[in-house]
Amino acid sequence: MSIKNSKQNSAQWHTKKAIPVLIALAFLIGLLPQKLVAASAIINNGGTPPAISGSQITVKLENSSSYVEPTNTFTDGTLNYYLVTQDPAKAGWTSLDYQGTTYPLTQVFVGDNLTSMKIGGVSLLTHNGPLVNATVFFDDGIYTDHDTTNYVGISQTNASYIGLNKTAGGEPAVTLRRLPRSDSNAAINNTMERYNIYSQNIYFENLIFDGQGYDMYPTGGSGLSKNRGEYMFYFAGDSGGTEGSAGFVMKDCILENVGASNEDTGFDSTKYNKNLAMNFYKSGGQHNFENIIIRNVKTTAGLGIISSNQSKDNYFKNITIIADGAYNSLSRSIKIENVSSDYYPENQNSAVFTGTLSLPTDSYHNHIYIQSWNYDNIVVPTDFRYAQYNRSNGNSSGTSAIQVYPSLPAVTANKSILDLQDNAWLVPDGAAVSLTNQLATIATTINNAGSHAPGANIKIAADSAGKINSFNLPNFGASRSANVVAVPGVTSLFTSTALVPFSADGIIQFPTSNAANIVLYNFDFDSLAKYTLQEAITGITAASSITDPNDGSISGYPDYSSYGPSATVAAKFKNATAANFSNSVFTSLVNEIKVNTPPTTLAVGGSYLLTGSLASTLDNSFTGSSFTGTITNTADDQTIYWYSSDPSIASVDRITGLLTGLHSGTVTIYAKAADSNNDGEIEKPFASFTLTVGGSGGGTGGGGTSETATTLGIPVTGLPIPFTGFAPGTVTHLPAQPSAAQYQNMDQIWLEIPGLNLQSTITGVPQTDTGWDVSWLGKETGWLNGTAFPTYAGNSVLTAHVYDANGLPGPFAQLDQLKYGDSVIIHAWDQQYVYEVRDVQSISPENSSYVFKHQDQAWLTLVTCQDYDAQTGQYAHRLVVRAVLITVK
Fold it and tell me: Of 129, 284, 636, 682, which one is least surrounded by beta carbons within 10 A?
C-alpha cells in the first residue's frame, strides 16, 4: 500500500506573504455520511473585553450610596411648635398628633393671613425672625403672605413648615401663596417675588407653593433689583461666602402656577421674566428634595425649570416635571451650568438625581442638560442610561457638553452616545450618521475632553439585519488603548461575548498610526463575509499554476485548473495584524488531509467505510511575533469527497465513503477536501491510497458466510444478543457511561412504527469484543454497530428497551403487537425507507445466529427482551421482528 498526502507548495502560486491560514485538527464524525460542519478559526488575544475601570468623571448612574440622606429634621433643635389653622375650634389646642407623635404647642394662630400672625409684635414670616428653631404645623387650607416685598421672610434658621394632611387625591391639603406686587412701574406691577433661601436648616414638608399664575419679578434693569424675582425658589450662599442654605430639606411638595407667560416681557432687553421653579446659584451645602412635583411653570426660552449654576451637593429623589406645555418650547427641564468660576471651580459642580425622574418627552425637555464636561459629580437615575456628548465643550451661550436621556437619542452629527450602564461609547450601525463618522467624533470628543474624557471603550451595535457593515477606525492617540466590541443590539453591554456577523465584502480601515493600540472583539468574519485571516490582513495573490494528481479519467473528480483568483485580491482590512482581533472568528480552510486506517485489500463483495481527517499546523510567521494570543481552528467545510480510479473494480460512495469490492484488480482511492470557502488562500488538498480487490471472504472487511454480516467491514458472529430490559416497576441505578461505550449521534436518523404510534431517534452503539452494551439507551433506539447501516443492503439490527432503568415501559414495550405486513419506517436524509414485517419470533437469548443472519437485501431486525422472571431477575426470551425494505419515498 502507498499513501500520498498532497499539500502543494503554496510558493508555486502565492507570494511568500500568502501563508496558509491556520487550521486545527478536525475529524469527520464516526460512521455517518459526511456533512458540512460549521466551525471557524477563533482568535483569542485576551478573550473578553477588558473591564472598564471606575466610573466616568462627569456623569454616572446612581448606586445605593449616591443619595445622601438629610440630617436636618423638623424636630432637630426645635424649641417651639406652632399651629396655624382656619378652624376656630382648634384655637385652644395645647398639643397635636402628627405621624404618631404628640407635639406640645406654644401658640395657635387662627386665620389665613400669614402677615397678620405675629409673635412679640413681629410677623411670623420675618427673615431670621420668630420662627428660628421653631416648627409651624399648617392645618388644611390656603394661607397667604400679604407682604408683597417680603422675599426673605421664609428664610429663618432651623425653621420648619409642615402641612398636616393630604387630600383624597394624595396631594398636600395646605397651599402657601403670596400676593403680587402693586407698583407704578409696569415692569414689576403684578409680579411675584421669590422665596430666597439663604439661612441654614430650613425644612418644608407636605405643602403646595402656588405662584397663582403671576410672572416672577423680572431680571434687574434700570431701577430694578435683580435679587427679588426670576425664580420661585432661590438658593444661594450668604454674603460671607459660606454655605448659607445648607441643610435645606423639601419633601412631598408641589410647586405650581409660576408665571403668566413663557415669553419675554419685552419691557427692556436687559430684563425679562425667567419664571423658574428653582435656581441654585453659588450655592453650597447639602440640599435634599424628595417627592417633588412641578407643574404649570412658564419658564422662558433657554432656561431650566430647575437650574443650577456654580452649585454643589444638591440631592434629588423622585422628581416630576409635568408635561403640560406651560414652559417655553425652547426651555429645558433641568439645566446644570457654570457661567463663571468665581465661587466654585467647575469640577466641584455637582447634582445627584435618584429614584424616579419624570420629564416631558419633547426634545428640549426629555433630558438633563449639562453645560460642561468638567463637572465631577453629576449622578442620574438608573433609567437615564444614555449620555450624549458634544464633541466640543458647552458654553454659556446655550451649547451643552452633555445631555442625558432615559431612552436612546437619535444619532446626530458631531455628537456621541455614552452608555452609562457600562461606561462604553455606543455606535449603532444603520443610524443616520455612518459608523466611520461616529467613531471619528468619539476620538475627537475624547481628545478634546482631556482628563474628563471617558475611555476609548466602544460598542458597535449591529444593524436591523443583525450585522455590522464597513467602517474606518480613527487614530485614538499614541497613549490610549481602544477596545471596540461588536454587540448584537443597542441594549447589549460592553461585556458581551456574543459573536456578531460582519457584512459580506465589508471593509475595515485601521489608522496608519497607532493601529496597534486598537483591539476588536466579538466580530464574526466567517458566517457572512467568509474571510480567512490571510484574506483579511494580507489579501490573496493570483494563482499561477496548480498540479492536479488526476489525469482527468476519474468520473466526477473536481477540476481545479481554474482554481484561485485571476488577479490579486487586496486585503479586506487595511493596516491590521492578527493582534488587532480577540474573540473574533474567521473562516478556516483545510490544508492537509489523510485517510484514517485505509485498507490494503478488499474481497470481491466486501465493503469498508472510509473516514478521513482534516488538519493544519499553526504558522507563527503569519500571525506575527508580537501576537501573544491563541488561535483555535476547525475547518468550516469538513466535507470529504471520495473517488475511485476504476469504479468497475472498487466503487466508493462519493458522500459516505462506503467502499465496495466488485472485481479483482488494483485501484487508487482519492479523498479530496471540498473546502468550499477557499478563495485561493491555499490549495485544496487531497490524499490517496492503493487498494487490491480479489478473492472472496478475505481482506479487511470482506467475505463472510451466511451467518456473518460483512456490511461496513465489521464481521459479526458468535456475539450475544444484547440485554435490553430492566426490572419493571423498579428503578435501577446505572453507573456513569464509560468513554469507550459512548454512543454515536446518528444525526436525525429516526425510527417510526405507525402501528405502535412509536417515534424514536436512532443512536449508534459501539461493538466491542464482548458485544454491545445498551444500558444507557433510555428512550432511544440503538443501532448495533457492525451490522448493516440502516437503509443499506444487509441486515441492520436495531434494539431498544422493553422496560428502561426507571422501571417504565421502553420504546419496544409493545413490539409483540406487530404482525406480518405492518410498516416500519426509517427516516433519513429527508427520505422515508419503508419496511414491511415478515416474521415475529420469540427466541432464546442464545440464538444470536437468527438475529445476525446475513441478508443480501436491506432488512431490519428489531430485538428486545421478553418474559421477565422476577425470581431470577432475568428475561427468559428475546422478541425478534424482521422486516424487509419495500420502497423509498
Answer: 129
